[in-house]
Amino acid sequence: MDSMGIMARKPTAADQALRLDNQICFAVYSTAHAFNRVYKPLLDRLGLTYPQYLVMLALWERDDVAVKDLGERLFLDSGTLTPLLKRLEAAELIKRTRSTADERVVLIALTPQGHALREKAKAVPQSILAASDCTVGELMAMKDEIVALRDRLNAVLGE
Amino acid sequence: MDSMGIMARKPTAADQALRLDNQICFAVYSTAHAFNRVYKPLLDRLGLTYPQYLVMLALWERDDVAVKDLGERLFLDSGTLTPLLKRLEAAELIKRTRSTADERVVLIALTPQGHALREKAKAVPQSILAASDCTVGELMAMKDEIVALRDRLNAVLGE
DNA sequence: TCACATTTAATTGTTCGCAATTGAATCCGC
DNA sequence: GCGGATTCAATTGCGAACAATTAAATGTGA
């Protein structure tokens, strides 16, 4: 077969598909890391990691919600969220309380400091926009495509 | 200001930008996780995690390379790669050897088993393609856009 | 009512991902 | 040569991410 040797061989479609450059998943994976690195210095000023920032974004839209609800919005499970939320509570940005109606449920609420942090966070998106060197319209179009892809992937998982 | 209270308030552009739905970074982040979950059962059969699969993809294209070279291709550093490569070595898929020319450098080479695994891996991309429910053309177009975004983000980091 | 299934968070263990540091090897200017 | 800067991989420590399990609370059917 000489698949690794000196002899020339016409690359098959399967060969091409295994090329790193051709993989959309690697494109998405490496772009996620690039975003993370761009966010890092901005979020350091807020005392947040990127996943913590996502949790705060979700809570600024709606708080007093169960861990499960937060997990569904962020596509994360309790194994990830429980320790992360404990760190946010230690930072006094949120408060965790058992629901009285259903004691299995832990409700997450913002503290005054948690609410207040939103003002400081408003500067973040425009810094990212600048770093992306794109227009808002371009980014939103891309975002819609990527979300559509994500939702199709998640649909397969749900089967 | 009543930013959290009952009074209605016209959402500003900054408010809109903080919405989770509007964030391309969250779209990318959550899509990366969705890919990971789709890959998981496929890669389990190969005995690889997703990052390990990426390393193998890179090595199938070119091996006998330094850790640093691998890191540049995958956008990862030695803190991530060193333990990952040790696990691949333990699985006998790669061999790590110090370069004789420059003893700081560790060269990564595929073992026969490492080469052989490529044949089994050929089935993976088409399964992903099916899960994405897209045409190859659509995916490649998206990939190019995302890579362009990644490269602009990385360019800002390099400044 | 009571057994049994389901739901919800928390926990445990493994693997990334990265910042910061370390230590060895190499390079470079003088 | 020699000394300091640089390069490279490894290490340490922390924070995700997730599978699998646990434990408690709740729901359901006979």
Automatic annotation (TrEMBL), chains A, B:
Keywords: Cytoplasm, DNA-binding, Transcription, Transcription regulation. Pfam families: Staph_reg_Sar_Rot. It comes from the Bacteria. Its main location: cytoplasm. It is found in: Cytoplasm. GO terms for molecular function: DNA binding; DNA-binding transcription factor activity. This is Transcriptional regulator, MarR family. The lineage of its organism: Bacteria, Pseudomonadati, Pseudomonadota, Alphaproteobacteria, Hyphomicrobiales. It comes from Bradyrhizobium brasilense. GO terms for cellular component: cytoplasm.
